[in-house]
Amino acid sequence: MKANKERYKPKIQITTAQYEAIKREVEIECLVDGCKQGIASVLYVLATRDKDQFSAEQLKTLLADINTLYTMPGIMGKSFYGVDIIDHLKKHYDLNVDALPVKADVE
């Protein structure tokens, strides 16, 4: 005799609004985590370069400057986002951050 396995499966029922709220929360968490990983990557590269290695104090100052940049309030009703930084680097320094081969594991 085979057991009815369907009755042992948990049944979760949520509304569309609950689903959208959870989805939005996960998306925000992923974006924040990705941003932190990007900043950590830059600090790591600066800390481990043989040619001009940054000291711990310089790295802390740089991190504080990044924190200041990200917590700046909007100016004249316009918000400040990471995409603005990417555009600025592209226009003024010819650095194409969008061309980086970023890998993402979606599973």
- Please count the beta strands (DSSP E, at least 2 residues each): 0
The ordered H/E elements are HHH
Number of helices, where a helix is a run of at least 4 consecutive DSSP H or I residues: 3
Secondary structure: helix percent:
55-70%
First and last CA, distance: 36 Å
Mean pLDDT: 81
Q: How much is the radius of gyration in Å?
A: 22 Å
Count of structural domains: 1
Fraction of residues in β-strands: under 5%
Low-confidence runs (pLDDT<50, min 5 residues)? none
The biggest beta sheet reads: none
Helix-and-strand structural type: mainly alpha
Task: Name the overall outline.
Answer: elongated
Describe the structure.
The chain has 3 helices and no strands. The protein is mainly alpha-helical. It has one domain (13-95). The protein is elongated.
Q: Which characteristics define this entry?
A:
107 residues; mainly alpha; 3 helices; 56% helix
Briefly characterize the structure.
With 107 residues, the chain is an all-alpha fold. The chain has helices at residues 16-48, 56-70, 82-93.
